[in-house]
Design a protein that fits this description.
The protein is an alpha/beta fold. The chain has a domain of 217 residues: FAD/NAD(P)-binding domain (3-Layer(bba) Sandwich). It contains 12 helices and 16 strands. Strands 3, 4, 5, 6, 9, 10, 11, 12, 13 and 14 form a 10-stranded mixed beta sheet that branches. A hairpin with a 2-residue loop joins strand 15 and strand 16. The mean pLDDT is 93. Bound molecules: flavin-adenine dinucleotide (FAD). Flavin-adenine dinucleotide binds next to helix 1, strand 2, strand 3, strand 9 and helix 8. It comes from Brevirhabdus pacifica. InterPro entries: FAD-bd, FAD-dep_Monooxygenase_BioMet, FAD/NAD-bd_sf. Keywords: FAD, Flavoprotein, Monooxygenase, Oxidoreductase. Its cofactor is FAD.
């Protein structure tokens, strides 16, 4: 289709919406983004962008900004939480990916994408909520629902009783997120040349931390299994004591990591099944709006970036909108479902209980890593080595 004549309405200025707006505006489309928030300020926390997501940032021309704002992660160190014993080291540097594995402050990533979108000519309308009943503007040819897991567009596209209408359900996991100035820790946390992420696995819980902003901040994500989510909304500011109490059974290192936490938010982790069909009429869904995932592969944002690129390409190449949507979903569905399933498996591996089972699993993982150090990462080549842009970055 001729992108120059196309008017695109994007609902949601998150990672998916802003990346799609940039990609489409760069191809010549007239793009308007409606965002419910009055300002683009993501709640302070980190986000890992793996090589598959980095490939999209590079293809959008954002490699130098990403290199400046992101912290390159050279490895992931997996440890047993209660004892602190090392289990496995995933050497990201040695894997030789075409694009780097980085950690960003979410606000920096969203800010970078917003600047790219407006720089490409997209208009971002803040304080614009598209409700389930609001009319879709008739001055646009296509509407892209990038409005996250609580998508209003999804609700209007798939009314109750139709495939795709499942309500998000609580996954039995609560995540606390906090950022702590690294200077709050008495001993240096990262003294080598390369930064790394640390993952502590314990019964029914795990904790991940990594540095952000040129080692100025430590990002902490701590997850605990729970039967139910009692809070009214999806997220609330919590008392740091509740977080520390939940991880009291972990070793000294985890407790030391949590000691200086002063501000923390708790999030219920929700999901709904990935539907077979992501579009209806001139509307299509991308990112968390259609395929929310547990964050245990750190892929939700990466998949959102991939969606944005593939969508812009299929729209540009297909003869009509309906064909574009079908090609888009055909290219994305199996990959997205595989990533979502892999995150679910990680939940079981990270949280394994009781102790003898956990020790046996960790021993097997450690042995596998010693025999063939790159093998555990190679199992994820299908994920990290995929470049949906075909090497445009
Ligand atoms: C604890 C945790 C850790 C995570 N870590 C990682 C990680 O390391 N790496 C990774 O890739 N992913 C990670 N994720 C997942 C990632 O955050 C999400 O997958 C990603 O933010 C999805 O982007 P999105 O643009 O689809 O949706 P969102 O980020 O939810 O953006 C949706 C936007 O739409 C707006 N909006 C919503 N409704 C409306 C409406 N009706 N009208 C107008 N605007 C609306 C919202 O305000 C928002 O700006 C993590 C998630 C969690 C919970």
């Amino acid at each position: 289709m001729r992108m120059k004549d196309m008017r695109v309405h994007v609902v949601g200025a998150g990672i998916a919406g802003l990346a799609a707006a940039t990609a489409l505006a760069r191809r010549g489309a007239t793009v308007t983004v409606s965002e419910q928030a009055n300002a683009l300020e993501a709640v302070g926390a980190g986000i890992q962008i793996s090589p598959n997501g980095a490939a999209v940032l590079a293809a959008l021309g954002l490699e130098s900004q990403a290199a400046r704002l992101g912290n390159r992660l050279g490895a992931v160190e997996m440890r047993d939480g209660p004892s602190g014993r090392p289990v496995l080291r995933l050497d990201l540097d040695a894997a030789g990916y075409d694009h780097p594995y980085r950690a960003f402050h979410r606000a920096d990533l969203v800010g970078m994408l917003a600047e790219a979108a407006t720089g490409a000519g997209a208009q971002i309308r803040l304080g614009h909520t598209i409700g389930p009943e609001s009319p879709i503007p008739d001055d646009c040819d296509v509407t892209i629902g990038a409005d996250g897991i609580r998508s209003a567009l999804r609700a209007r596209m798939f009314p109750q009783g139709t495939a795709g209408a499942d309500e998000p359900a609580f996954t039995g996991n609560v995540a606390w997120r906090a950022t702590v100035p690294l200077e709050s820790y008495p001993a240096p946390m990262f003294d080598g040349a390369a930064d790394h992420a640390r993952l502590f696995m314990g019964p029914g819980r795990h904790l991940v931390c990594y540095p952000l902003r040129a080692r100025g901040l430590l990002n902490i994500v701590a997850v605990e299994e729970r039967r139910a989510w009692q809070a009214e909304g999806w997220m609330y500011p919590d008392a740091p004591e509740n977080l520390r109490r939940a991880f009291v059974g972990m070793g000294a290192e985890v407790r030391a990591l949590l000691d200086p936490v002063e501000i923390v938010h708790a999030w219920g982790l929700f999901r709904h099944p990935v539907p077979d069909i992501w579009h209806r009429g001139t509307c299509v869904l991308i990112g968390d709006a259609v395929h929310p995932t547990l964050p245990f592969m750190a892929q939700g944002g990466n998949l959102a970036l991939e969606d944005a690129w593939v969508l812009s390409e299929t729209l540009a190449k297909a003869p009509d909108v309906e064909t574009a949507w079908r090609h888009f979903t055909a290219q994305r569905l199996a990959r997205v479902r595989r990533a979502v399933a892999a995150a679910g498996r990680n939940a079981r591996i990270y949280h394994l209980s009781p102790a003898p089972l956990r020790r046996a699993l960790h021993a097997a993982m450690g042995l596998a890593g010693r025999i063939a150090p790159q093998a555990p990462l190679r199992r994820f080549d299908w994920l990290y080595r995929e470049d949906v842009t075909g090497g445009k970055g």
